[in-house]
Amino acid sequence: MLQMKMGGAERLIHNLISKIDRSLFNPSVAWFIGEHPLNEFQDLEIPLYFIPKIKSIDFAAMRKLASIIQKHNIHIVNAHHFMPFVYSYYGSKVRGRAKLIYTEHSEWEIEKTSLFWMKMGHYLLNYADGAVGVSKAVARQIRFKFNLEESKAIVIYNGVNIADAAKKDDINDVRTSLKIESNDKVIGIVANYRKNKNHIFLLRAFNELLKHYSNVKLLLIGQGFVGDPENSESEIIQFIADQNLSSKVFVLGYRSNVPELLRVMDIFCLISFKEGLPLGLIEAMASGLPVIGTNVEGIQDIIMPNKNGLLVRIGDVEGLKTALLTLIQNESLMHRMGLESKKLVADNYSLKHCIKQYQDLFMDVMD
After folding, report:
1. Model-level pTM?
2. CATH superfamily, domain at 8-159+351-366
3. Mind listing the pLDDT tens digit for each residue in 279-293?
4. CA–CA separation, 116 vs 86, rounded Å?
């Protein structure tokens, strides 16, 4: 994978390794950015390989990855995102004989590909063993951008563990630790602090909401990364300070207990500019939450308006405020939409089905 953080791609990788059939597969993880592994990956008790990538085109990193593939007799490499796919090609197809599968999580990662890498990607993918898009739109973009035959890029939807998400533990301790009152409604977002996730839009709407409904809290769960040009953490902190929202908005940073925090929430929001197939949104739905999102591809594929949630236009602060207020003031509507969220996840985005599809793909390419 690209980096040792816990975003949507990394959660999918973690979920796959957690539940994959260990009688058939012996998984390991290699990554390029962020030297220290997260506890969640260490707890998996699998081999972990950090490969420092220093240059924009780092041949030493390619060689190190190739050595790992050869030394440990790795048969299948599943590279998540385009750069890890390119770096994996040398070790899998040039120096070794491993099968290579590329998984892409977002359309815009492909959209920003330069003409050179479009042509290079076309060549590499034609000699790879498969490509996966986490949604129909992502798979379609892979085929279009790299000029591939339809059979070269399939769709495997991200999945979540519905059984775990469905558990309803006592949440009073969590609410107390966060200083959430019993009569407070809780809005939440789980997304790293990046400009694309559009936290400021949510904060502006939340600030307007407080003028109409004061017993409400907002939980921001995620983190920013030093050196990331998309990092929006300082902007978020500054907005909260400027608007005196510190008693209402809790910037929680990275948390490993996201399922417990989801159970504290009454409404989940994801108001990104762009998305692939957002795992955080699916996890919120699996927890039985009504959801509000921006009307963009990826999000609009999951939120069924007036069924399990509401869609708003990007930048429409009044519209987002109204959507939040509509749900907050209607308990029965929140409950009905939450039940529908769980049903949609069970029908379409179960982790069990996701893992079966990956396992079938891995077995097919080995055959």
Report:
1. 0.82
2. Glycogen Phosphorylase B; (3.40.50.2000)
3. 899 999 999 999 999
4. 13
